[in-house]
Amino acid sequence: MPRTRLSLIVRLVFLLIPVIIIGLSALLFVIEARHRQILEDELHAIRTLQRVDQATILLDRQRLRVAQSVYLPLDPAAIGAGAAEFRAQFADPEMFPRVESRALQRQILAEYDTFVAMTLALPADPTVGQVQNVQRQAEAVVSRLDALGALHTADLEEIFRSEREQSQVSDLVLLITNLSVLTLVIIGFVLLTRLGRQQTEAAALRATDQLRNEFVAFAAHELRNPASAIKTGAALLREPDVEPEIQTEIVESINRSADALSRLVLTLLTMGRLEEGRLQLTYQRVWLSALLGDLVAELEVYHPGVEGRIHRALPKVQVQVDPEYSKLAFSNILDNALKYAPPRTPITVTGEEQEGEVLVRIHNSGPVISPDVLPHIFDKYETTGTAPQSTRQGVGLGLYMTRLLIEAHGGRVWAESAPETGTTITVTLPVAR
Predict the structure, then answer these.
(1) Considering the entire predicted model, what is its pTM?
(2) Which run of H or of E encompasses 334?
(3) Which residue of 105, 126, 265, 292 has the smallest Cβ count within 10 Å?
C-alpha cells in the first residue's frame, strides 16, 4: 500500500472513530435520560395508585361503619381517625404535578369532607334512607378516586421497550468501541512494522554506505600497488646505465603489474556486470595448469615469493572457460589463502578429473573457519574478520564474486574447514569436449 494512501487511511480512521464514539455516546445519554424519566413517571404512577388503593380501603371501612350504624352505634372517633388517615394520603402536593390530577385531588378532598360531615351528622338511630344518602356521597368519592387512578396507570411495556432500546444502543457503543480499539491496535501494529522496516532499511543503507566507503578504500589500496610498481619500473628504465638483463626484468615486472592492474579493474567491472546480469563469457579451450600458472605469476606483484609457496599438482586436462574471468575467480581464492595462511607455509593446488568435470582443491593451513560462518563465506559482504597474516581488511566481495563467476561457468564452489587440516576450497569446472 502506498505511504500516502496509508497515511490518509490512518488520519481518516483517527478522525472518524472519535466522532462515531462521541455521537453514539450522546445518543446513549439521551436514551438513558428518557429512560430515567420513564422510570420516574412510572414510579410516580405506582405510588399514586398505592395511595388511591389505600384511600379506597379506608373509605370502604368507613362506608361499612356507616352501613352498620343502622343497628350499631356509630363511633365518631373512628370516623375522625379514618378521615385524618385518608387526608394524609393526599396531603403531599408534589404527588400530583399534573393539573388534572390536582383538580381531582381537590374534588376528592371536598367530596370526602362532605361524606365525613354527613356521616357525623347521622342521628343515633339513622334510617335506611339517611344511610343511603351518605353511601351515595361515598360512591361519588370512589368515582373520583377511580378517575385519579385512571390518570396514573403504570405502563410496564413502555419500561421494557425503553430498557431494550437502551440495551441495544449500549451494545452498539460497546461493539463500536471494541472495534475501534482493535482497529487502533492493528493500525499501531502496521505503523510499528513499517517503522521497523524503515529503521531496518535505514540501517541497511548506512551499512551499505559504510561498505561502499570501505570498498572504495580497499580498491584504492589494491590499485596503488601495481600502479606504484609500473611507475617505479618506468622511472628505472629512464636511467641510462641500466643493464639489458635488468631492463628485461623491469619490463616483465611492468607487464605483470599492468596485468594485475587490468585484473583489478576487471574485478570492479565484473562485480557490476554480474549483479546486473550483463556478464558475457568468451569460452576457450585452455590447459588448466597453464591457466593457474599465469595466475600465480600475476599474483607475484601482490605477494612476492608466491611462486615458491604455491605447490601445484594438476592433471593434464583442458577446460572450457573464459580465461580472464576464471583467473579472476581463482585469484580471489588464492589471495584469501595467502592472507590467512601462516607465513612461509605452502598453499597446495591439486586437481582431479571425474565425470566430465575437474575438481580443483585449494588448501591452506590457516585458522579454522567456525561452522556457523563457513556456509556463508560465499555470501555478499560476508567476511571472517581481519586476516592475521595481512594488514588488509576485506569487504566480503571476493568470494561472493568467485561463486558467481564459477556458477556462470557451469561449475560449483564450496569450502571445508577442520582444526587439524585447515581450510580447503573446492571448485569444479567443465572439461573441454
Answers:
(1) 0.46
(2) helix 323-340
(3) 265
